[in-house]
Structures are given as C-alpha cells and as structure tokens.
Amino acid sequence: MQDERVLVYRGCIIPLDLLYDVERDVWVRLEGEQARLGMTDPAQTRAGKLVAIRFKRPGTVVERGRALATIESGKWVGPFPAPFRCEIIETNQSGFERDILLANRDPYGEGWLLLVRPLAPEQLADLLPGEEAFQRYRQRIDELGLTCFRCAE
Amino acid sequence: MRIRVVDLGLVSPVRSQTVYHAVGYAFRSDTPPTILLVSTTDPYVSIGYHQDAEREVDLEYCRNAGLPVIRREVGGGAVYLDHNQVFTQWIFPRELVPSRVEDRFAWYVRPLVETYRQWGIEATWRPINDIHVRGRKIGGTGAASIGDAEILVGSLMLDFDTKQMARVLKVASEKMRDKVFQSLEEYMTTMRRELGTMPDRDQVVHTYLEQCSAALGAELEFGELTPEEEAVAAELDARFASEEWLYQKGGLRESGIKIHADVRLHEAALKVPGGLIRVIVRTHGGRIDDVSLSGDFTLLPALGLAAIEQAVRGLSTRREELAARIREVYRALGLQSPGVTAEDFASAIAQAVELAT
Question: Could you tell me the keywords of this UniProt record (chain B) (predicted)?
C-alpha cells in the first residue's frame, strides 16, 4: 500500500510516498526498473516561475550531481541535478511545451521532469523516504526562512 | 567579511563573459566572495543560455558588422553590449547568497540602485530582476548556479545603443524592428540620458564599490585572478567562441521580445481565407499597449484598420474580449473585409501573444 498522505510545513508540501534527495531538492518515484524525477515544492518556490527549460537527450548517461536539465527563472539559470547516476529514458518535453509553468503548478504530478534508469543502486540508498525527508526539510525550510507557494498563481 | 574586488578594466568581448564563469567553475572552499568589474573593448551580442541564436539574432548582419555573438550561461535574452556598460559580476559561495531567486536579485540589485541614487537618478528595484527609473529600465540582471558558486551579473549602464540593439535582433519585418527601437527608446534609459552628460567610469565604479561595502557590511580588498582562474578563463574563451557552443539548440522559452519587466513585443502572421494578417503587439503588464495590423487582405473603408488598432488598446489578450470589441468597430464603421472576420483579427492578436517560440 502506498502512503498517499502529504505533510506540510510552512506551505511546503512533502508527499510521503516519494523518495527525496533533500540537498539537491529532487523527488524520486521508483517505477519498477525506472525512476521518475521532479522538482520539490521547496525547489519550485525557491526558483520562482520557470521561463525556460532544456533537457539533456534521452539516452544520455548523467553522473550524480550533474545536470539532467537546465532551468531558467527570472534570468537565473541552474541545473536540475541527477540524484544518482542514471540514463535518461524520457523527458517531459511535451508537457512543458504545453505549459512552461507545469512544475510550478503541479511539482509532484504533471510537472515531473524526467524518467530515468538508475545505474548506481548503491546511490539509491542515500535517498530519504517521505517521513525522514520531511524532518530534514523542516530544518532546511527554517534555515532558509522559506514559505512555499505555487509560483504560477 | 572580506570581499575580493578585481577591476579588469577593458577586456575582449569573449573574456568579458568568460571571466565570471571561470571564477565560478574554479570556485573552491577557500575562494573569497568576489566582485568583478569589467567592460568590453569592442561591441558584441550576448545571448541567454536557453536561446536559439539563429532564431533570436540576425547572425548575417552580425557577421558582416564583425560583431561576435556569445552565449552566456545566464538566463534572459539577447543584448547588444559595448564599452559604455560596466559589468558588475558577483561570484559568491552558496551559503552567503539568499536562497530564493527573487530575494537573491533584491540583494544583488541594492548597491546598483544606491549607486544610481547617489548620482541623483531615481532608480528602484523592479522585481524580479530589473532596475527602473520612473518606468524606464536602466539595465537588467541575471544569475546562475555554476559549480559551487552562485553568480549574479548586471551592469552600470553609463550608456546604451538602442539603435544597434534593435538592429542585431532577428525580426520578421522592418516594421517590427522599428517597433523594437521605438519601444527601447520609450522604455529604457541610461545614466547619460538621465544626467544629460556621460559620467566618468571610474567615479561611477568608486560609488558602486562604496555601496557594495555598505550593503554587504564587508571590507573590500582589491585583488587579482588566480593562475587557475586565468587558465579556466582561457579554456572558456575557446569554448564560448566555438560554433558548437553558439549553435546549440535553444530550450523551451516563453514568447516575445522582452523590453522590460512589464513590456513585451510579439509578432505573428495568420492565414485566413481573405489573405494573410500580420500583427505586431506590444503588451504592458499583460494588457495590449500597442497593435499594428497589416497584410494583403481587403478592408473597407481602409481607415477601419487604424480604428481596430485603436480600439483594442488597454484590453486583455483574451480572444473573446478582443473579438467582441472588434465586432463593435465593424458595426460602428460598417467595415467590410471579404474572407476576413473580426474573430480572425482577434485570433491573430491572441496568437501573437501566446505563440511559443
């Protein structure tokens, strides 16, 4: 049974059924041999409204910490980093073509960024499950003085 | 806190961009927070990281005019730069920089705004990343996360060549180019324009550094680049000058040419049974500020076109609202346009604004 609850701290939503790389602000949903990745609610809040995104091509192998995509908001450009070594299977190019604010509107749903194949199983062990990630996020959100909101609205 | 300040004076076009990337890529735990000041010896065009060079810039013109076109790893749009701007580039460790992008710009922009104010120019921060003087933009700013560093870039806008800026952009018609130029004239300003005279670079820089020191509560120390930073810059000079770097495909981006935070120019063409409708739309705060319609269709009486252009000013860009207003003009003036309807004009305008580039 998936835990469908979400925890909320200062407006920041952390669904419990996902895994997190809190440092890199990436959520991970394991789907069999593959993993779906996206920006967390704190990540989309910090970035603000996206104005551009460029994905690396499917088939590309990306090391942990390196960019799977680059995102731009308010003239800031930054990486969407890989939480583990992986190969890109699919990107959400078509979703963002329809609506560049997809990750701002629905960071854990339609706003997913990439589907990848994990290539370093040992690095998956470093991801934190929902409850634990939430505790870490609380601390981090306090440190950053962050309050989450949907930047698209 | 101690901050290293490196005033590089005038450097080559490519180096004026690569130098801050280099300090970012070479950033280590013992690298001090750094402020670089630099101007370019010769004019060039800088394009945003996610832009498509061929789509945004008149590359043939630039080639013939000897203007380099250089992609930066910072966001935003294409801009014509010359020796009349002093680039103010901050390369800071992540923990010293506000974590929300918007807060980061507010923090970075403050000494720029204060510098202009010291010079008697009523500058204010216009979120997210513009500086305005009574509704006119006096320069934008950009940012990037590179390596272990957070980078913020902007400029002290001594002067700006709006004519060349409008010339280097790729646009579908000369009419659009005129609109870009007019809009830049109307919505941009510079120190020279505000003061009526060209300020002295060194004096402006002096004011700026005082303001940086005050805003950051930091001691500034003049320094130089390390040999490692120089080496990375030299490597990047080659990469940034390569065709592979320039011609990489753009990402998905919102549409239109951004004049400033509130003002964008859009253009589109719509084929309908009665001919081709060409439209140039300027939006201000999301509403229509100016529209120019043309094409090979027939509209009688001919003055109807100007009446439509006039009637849609101030409206939102919603198709239904536009169509309703244009239908009113049709009725009031008894307009006739075989194969072209009021809805078609509304669609052309709405499409220009929506068009994803």
Answer: Ligase
The backbone region for B262, taken as left when phi is positive above 0, alpha when psi lies in -120 to 50, beta otherwise, is alpha
Block residue for tokens 């009486």: B301
- Residue B313 sits in the same domain as residue B201: no
Integer Cα distance of B95 and A21 in angstroms: 19
Q: CB neighbours (10 Å) of residue B227?
A: 9
Pair B229, B279 in one domain = no
Show me where the domains of chain A are located: 6-121+138-144
Examine the fold and report which residue of B246, B272, B288 is the final residue of a domain before the chain moves on. Answer: B246
A117 beta partners: A87
Which residues of chain B are at the A interface, by a Cβ-Cβ cutoff of 8 Å?
48-50, 73-76, 99-102, 104-105, 128-129, 140-145, 249-254, 356
Q: One digit per residue, pLDDT tens: chain B, 357 residues?
A: 899 999 999 999 999 999 999 999 999 999 999 999 999 999 999 999 988 898 899 999 999 999 999 999 998 889 999 999 999 999 999 999 998 899 999 999 999 999 999 999 999 999 988 999 999 999 889 999 998 899 999 999 999 999 999 999 999 889 999 999 999 999 999 999 999 999 999 999 999 999 999 999 999 999 999 999 999 999 999 999 999 899 887 777 766 788 888 899 998 889 999 989 999 999 998 899 999 998 889 999 888 999 999 999 999 999 999 999 999 999 999 999 999 999 999 999 999 988 643
**How many Cβ contacts (< 8 angstroms) between chains A and B?**
90
Range of the domain at B95: 2-246
A93 has a chain B CB within 8 A of its CB: yes
- Name which of A70, A74, A146 is nearest B105 (Cβ-Cβ): A74
Residue B357 neighbours by CB under 8 Å, 6+ apart? B52, B55, B253, B254, B255, B256
Q: Output the pTM of the full model.
A: 0.84
Q: Which residue has the tokens 């305005």?
A: B132
Query: What is the CATH code of the structural domain delimited by A6-121+138-144?
Result: 2.40.50.100
Query: Does any domain span residue B275?
Result: yes
The C-alpha of A101 sits at a distance from chain B's nearest C-alpha, in angstroms, of 10
The answer, yes or no, to whether ipTM is higher than 0.95 is no
| Distance from C-alpha of B142 to C-alpha of B217, rounded to nearest angstrom | 23
Secondary structure (3-state) at B61: helix
Whether B118 and B195 have beta carbons less than 8 Å apart is answered as no
Q: Is residue B22 part of a domain?
A: yes
Tokens standing for B328? Answer: 């009113």
End-to-end CA, chain B? 44
Residue B338 located in a structural domain: yes
Task: Measure the CA–CA gap between B93 and B12, rounded to whole angstroms.
Answer: 27
Whether residue B274 sits in one domain with residue B190: no
